[in-house]
Amino acid sequence: MKGVFSAPGDYIYFKSQVPLHKIPIGTKQWRYYDFGPKVVPPLICLPGTAGTADVYYKQIMSLSMKGYRVISVDIPRVWNHHEWIQAFEKFLDAIDVHHIHLYGTSLGGFLAQLFALRRPRRVRSLVLSNTYLDTRTFAAAMPWAPVVSWTPSFLLKRYVFTGIRDGPHEPFIADSVDFVVSQVETLSREDLASRLSLTVDAASVGPLLLSDSFITIMDLKDQLSERYPGARRAYLKTGGDFPFLSRPDEVNLHLQLHLRRVGVEARPDLVRGISKDGGGGSPSEKSDEKGDRNDPGKDIGESSESPSAGQLSPAPESSGSNSLGDQFLSNTQYCLVDPRDKILPFLGSLFNNHHVVATGIILQFVWEVLVSYLLPFYAESLYITL
User: Is 117 helix (H, G, I), strand (E, B) or coil?
Assistant: First the structure.
């Protein structure tokens, strides 16, 4: 976790294509990504203590291209679980989303279970990864919890980093750790303090009204099986603390299988570019008109922040087979104008008139003969004159 961090190429591409939304709701500031067809029930991703909305960028890119809607949020500055449930419900109302599917990791998984417990009518399914059922263990390990709101930022960050397993890792796991650490550096002292308060706030998850068949447990360890015996298991052999970054192909596949199993139908036919209002992936009349003129191969990923109406193709360093260079080459096929498109119709109109064509050929032949015959005499006369 030391050294200079360099953002991955696919993350830079993601930031250039997918807009970041920031909206105030009451006293809370929400920061989130929303990408994919609006008519599809969304999969909402909730990060852990050390995560932000950005840590799920690989899931947003992959699933949105397949026709799913993915919303990734930052946990706002709330100080207890009751406040979280109220704030999250207001957020869903503000973005006009009623029924959701939640994917939570660590603290995000615990908050997802609490919301499903208190608001069962809104939660249709759960995907839980590396999470827990109560906070007693964390409260016992953090005796200074009553003064967490006054703790300096560097101490809060140090405490968060101690929860991330450091040491020799495989390269893809080490990269995922570096990325999460870089995201922690962007969090303010108040944000870190509020998340740690949620971690130690006394609470436990009771029995859910949601059937176990609508729950998928994606874990390297066996912690939730006793509570949800009928839940589907998505086994990950490796991946570290952040498999959504280190093993995105496996995680995305399990998420897609879960969404299909709980009845969420992808709409690849509605995958469009981002409109100027920042709405990702939802077709509109304006985007249709512009797309018909400027982008014959309509696909997801057009952004107002992008210099061109590009497509959200798999980015470099991602699991896709295409690259930005391939995308540029494919776009140039539509941007360059073939001269034959204008010359051939013109010549065709000439060939329809045989007399004009014959006259043109004769005049051109006579002109070439005269030039080739008279040019030497003209040059000799100039020499004699000089």
Answer: helix
